[in-house]
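FIELD: query
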Amino acid sequence: MIPVEDLITLIHAYNPKSDEKLIRAAYEYGRAMHEGQFRHSGEPYFSHPVAVAAILASQRLDDATIITALLHDTIEDTRASYSSIEEQFGRHIADLVDGVTKLTNLQLASSETKQAENFRKLFMAMSKDMRVILVKLADRLHNMRTIKAMRAEKQLQKARETMDIFAPLAGRMGMQWMREELEDLAFRVINPEARASIMRRFITLQKESGDVIERITGDMRHELDTAGIEAEVFGRAKKPYSIWRKMREKEIGFSRLSDIYGFRVITTNEPDCYGVLGAIHQRWRAVPGRFKDYISQPKSNGYRSIHTTVSGRDGKRVEVQIRTRQMHDVAESGVAAHWSYRDGVRSENPFAVDPAKWISSLTEQFDAEEDHEDFLEAVKLEMYADKVFCFTPKGDVVKLPRGATPIDFAYAIHTRIGNACVGAKIDGMRVPLWTRIKNGQSVDVITADGQMPQATWLDIASTGKAKSAIRRALRAQDRDRFIKLGRELARAAFEHVGKKATDKALETAARRLRLGDVDTLLARLGSAELSARAVLNTVYPELVQRDGDEIGRDLAVIGLSAGQQFERARCCQPLPGERIIGITYRGKGVVVHTIDCEALVAFEEQPDRWLDLHWQEGTHPAIYDVALDVTIGNDAGVLGHVCTLIGELKANISNLTIFDRKPDFYRMLVDVEMRDAEHLHSLISALEAESDVAAVERHRDVTQAGSLGLERQEPSVGLQTEK
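FIELD: result
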């Protein structure tokens, strides 16, 4: 249990003018009232109110809130009464303690009703004094931190309640740090296996790539120092629940999740925020569609910050938040910033919102709701404002993205209902199918037998589920006709460039386009969802001369010092367009490796030799050798045909070695000169489409890791055969 002296010291750190005598009195009063009471863990019960007070003190809250935290369980669990607290600490604090008590002192029949009533009490209490909610949130946070002492079924109940009610509430109030911790603590109980798996992946990632946070933070500080901007830089890995939620939303695995690190830059003034943004975007490439300016357009809870995502060191995506110190205080404390102190003075933060005005916008619509279920739904609509919650005629709730239409609603109910939809009513009124659904509206879908989806629906629908179902239904209507038409279109397109639309070529195109099978490819080709040119380019990309001047080899790599030379590593043979890392050799320049090269393991303990490099954008000449492992049929003319195909794709053969000859096939290593990774991809696709080519893959030779660079080789005279 935290001693009173430590609590006083914590409060004095931000508010030296606090009423120490009153806080001590509240501490002693609470300890006396809870004397003889113990928690499930065996600790004295009063350790809990003190811990709650310490959490609120860390947010620099006023004396009344701290004292309320010390006394918040006295009326409910001890002989203390409202009048006795009012007598000793005043009516104001007595009202706050009573408000917290009423939030938890509920005995209702059903869990659904209890949840609704909890929400009602929460919001009604907020309308009177939001500090009641701050105490309640801190109370829940400490309970979740110590939840292991409870029975398993009680843990699960509390965790779900936290995830459904308290974590979203903390987020809505702008207290993101509390929301993240509540979610993570609840996640630990609800799905411990998933959390443990993510933590294991984090540990493995750290072992493989080292302290990424420290390296990127150092890079950012260097860029800001260069730009002459004074700012603090912090970095962290995102919380396991946040990672898990993104994995579920995007339906991808951990290995494909890119932005798992977050960084924060705190500046001294607002203009510097935009200066930091410019310095970061100059140094790293910004990710399109991942920029938000909440400084010019603040959130309703007062949150201000610039959010951007960039491709940082080693090509890893990182999220960067940029804001001033005052903005940061609001971002950390949310609406609680209104009561915060700094150096004994109530914070005059221009960005802190007026809690009374903020909460009135939330509660005005709830006062009229008499039914518990209606109230619960009304609250959820407001809590999850980025979604649209609408209702079926029976009152069931359907969650849709903002901007959804009755078409999306119909398919969200069932694909069969969506396909048979002929109209819709919103709140009893007939509306066009392109009408945007608003929060809280009731939607009634009108169906008819024999109705089929229309092509125009694709422009109306906004959800992926609806769009994919519409496309499926449209394709099924004329699938056979489209397949025949698609085959004829493919034949004509291939013959136009002197090629044949063989089954293998079409299979390669289908695989590259991720369409499953040839019939699906042909059906989409016949229905004009896919162009013949796109299919042809997938197998035999058109090799037109690219616009612009070619980039010389001396200017190909960005990130080198003046006069510094580079060589490509023989082991991985990096190409323009690939993510690269440089390893320095004293007196011998820099050797460039691909980011996934196994040879880099040998340099893990030498971080000072690593250089963050990337290729210059633009057109590169076809001078970069890459080895291909090709298996072809052992028939007359096959080798010549393959070499001709490589030449047609503007890839010069610099060396060819046959090393495994069999009666029916043989393998060879072909060194070809490529422009970039895209050029290589096109070549491999074209080779795979050939009937005479059994297999083709890029050859990497780890035994060449010790070689300092890749020297240009002269084309071999004739063929070399290795035994």
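FIELD: remark
The two ends are 77 Å apart (CA to CA).
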